[in-house]
């Protein structure tokens, strides 16, 4: 008896997930492996990947385009929540996992599979995200993670694959571990494992080096409706096109690089480089529009929600009741977050230089120091008397 009969395997076309196919069949007694490659705008050619799965022993090779859902259902809510893990990482990789998990569960149910497999090792966040998401969507499906158990080195994995006709990588494989999708690149390992080492320029694929960026600033205008970006330079753009165009424009000015040491859920600190041009600028612009359209108390309270929201996404709890509850809060706050933000891109910097909204709470008559001033200055005195009262009482006590 094998560990499972029919398995849906999350498939990338790389050595590890390819080796999973014969491994599941030969070592773990699985009878049938169906692979599923998700297209999330990573830029890979998918037809060769589809064929490679079949050549590696899959009985069926599915390729599913999830790009639009990725932007609409994953990225946009994260933008509304200004989601930045540890205040920096816009979760480009983490956001993809719940969607892939959903595709895997749907396929498993459709094809009557009793297990889902993935190629994650035991050291990362992604295994947690897959396992927890799959369990949330269908707790009756078994989860198999061969790479968490097989204890093969890179060379041994390649040699194992060769026995089953899986070619070893043609290019000398990159020293880095990459994860790419429409929202960004995550790059780790190799020389980057030393947090003191500056990342070599050639690791970057989506953002230009400052030396190569234009010598003139570029201004862009991003229009939001209820917290969702809908226009670029006054033109309506579809969700996917918006991200694509912004990645191009923003990356061209060298904006969107992040170099950080982050805390993984499983307790390890890791140094990761990210490139998330569109996503970074969208969050920056969105947060700025909120400063114009949300009241002070909602803005301040939302900061705490955003922090928790980011941790939930990072920690794989996308399909949790807490996430659903926070979604409701965030969505409610976005009702009036409609307007336009003007961003200046220049030499690695994105700066918000203007914002406007029909729902703006900014009042010129209240803010101005000029002759149009409408604010009742005298009223401030009574307010300050009451506001400072507890502190004065406390201070008086300390003196006696
Ligand atoms: N540290 C990031 C996360 O947990 C990315 C993980 C994948 N990174 C990679 N370079 N393969 O979301």
In short:
With 400 residues, the chain is of the alpha/beta class.
SSE map:
Blueprint lengths: L5 E5 L4 H12 L5 E8 L6 H10 L4 E6 L1 H14 L15 H16 L3 E3 L8 H12 L4 E3 L9 H10 L13 E5 L2 E5 L29 E8 L2 E5 L2 E2 L2 H13 L5 E7 L5 E7 L1 H17 L2 H19 L6 H13 L5 E8 L2 E8 L7 H4 L11 H9 L1 H11 L1
Parallel strand pairs: 1-2, 1-4, 2-3, 4-5
Antiparallel strand pairs: 6-7, 7-12, 8-9, 8-13, 9-10, 11-12, 13-14
Helix pairs in contact: 1-6, 3-8, 4-5, 7-8, 9-10
The structure holds arginine (ARG).
Key traits:
14 strands; 400 residues; 40% helix; single chain; 5-stranded parallel sheet; alpha/beta; 13 helices
Please explain how this structure is put together.
The protein is of the alpha/beta class and 400 residues long. It has 13 helices and 14 strands. The protein has helices at 15-26, 46-55, 67-80, 96-111, 126-137, 154-163, 239-251, 277-293, 296-314, 321-333, 364-367, 379-387, 389-399, and strands spanning 6-10, 32-39, 60-65, 115-117, 142-144, 177-181, 184-188, 218-225, 228-232, 235-236, 257-263, 269-275, 339-346, 349-356. The strands form 3 sheets. Strands 3-2-1-4-5 form a 5-stranded parallel sheet, with helices on both faces. It starts with 5 loop residues before the first strand and ends with a helix. The model has no long low-confidence stretch (mean pLDDT 96). The protein binds arginine. Arginine (ARG) is lined by residues 93-94, 125, 177-179, 186-188, 272.
């Amino acid at each position: 008896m094998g560990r499972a009969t029919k398995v849906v395997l999350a498939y990338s076309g790389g050595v590890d997930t390819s080796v999973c196919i014969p491994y599941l069949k030969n070592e773990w007694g699985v009878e049938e492996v169906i692979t599923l490659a998700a297209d999330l705008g990573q830029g890979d050619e998918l037809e060769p990947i589809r064929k490679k799965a079949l050549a590696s022993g899959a009985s069926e090779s599915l390729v599913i385009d999830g790009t639009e859902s990725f932007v609409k259902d994953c990225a946009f809510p994260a933008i509304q929540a200004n989601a930045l893990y540890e205040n920096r990482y816009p979760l480009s990789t983490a956001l993809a996992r719940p969607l892939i998990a959903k595709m895997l569960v749907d396929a498993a149910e459709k094809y009557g599979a009793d297990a889902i497999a993935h190629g994650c090792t035991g050291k990362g966040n992604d295994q947690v995200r897959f396992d927890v998401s799959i369990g949330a969507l269908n707790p009756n499906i078994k989860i198999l993670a061969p790479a968490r158990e097989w204890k093969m080195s890179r060379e041994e994995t390649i040699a194992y694959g060769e026995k089953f006709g899986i070619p070893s990588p043609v290019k000398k494989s990159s020293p880095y571990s990459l994860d790419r999708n429409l929202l960004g690149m995550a790059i780790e390992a190799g020389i980057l494992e030393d947090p003191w080492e500056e990342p070599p320029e050639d690791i970057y694929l989506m953002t230009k080096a400052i030396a190569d960026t234009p010598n003139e600033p570029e201004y862009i205008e991003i229009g939001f409706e209820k917290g969702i970006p809908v226009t670029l330079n006054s033109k309506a753009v579809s969700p996917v096109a918006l991200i694509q165009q912004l990645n191009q424009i923003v990356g061209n000015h060298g904006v969107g690089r992040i170099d950080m040491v982050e805390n993984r859920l499983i307790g390890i600190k890791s140094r990761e480089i990210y490139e998330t041009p569109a996503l970074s600028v969208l969050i920056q612009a969105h947060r700025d529009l909120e400063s114009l359209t949300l009241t002070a108390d909602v803005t301040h309270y939302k900061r705490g929600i955003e922090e928790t929201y980011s941790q939930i996404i990072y920690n794989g709890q996308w399909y949790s009741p807490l996430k659903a509850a926070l979604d409701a809060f965030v969505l409610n706050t976005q009702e009036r977050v409609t307007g336009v933000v003007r961003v200046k891109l220049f030499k690695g910097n994105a700066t918000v230089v203007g914002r406007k909204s029909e729902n703006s709470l900014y009042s010129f008559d209240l803010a101005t120091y000029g002759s149009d001033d409408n604010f009742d200055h005298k009223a401030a005195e009574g307010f300050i008397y009451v506001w400072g009262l507890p502190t004065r009482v406390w201070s008086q006590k300390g003196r006696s």
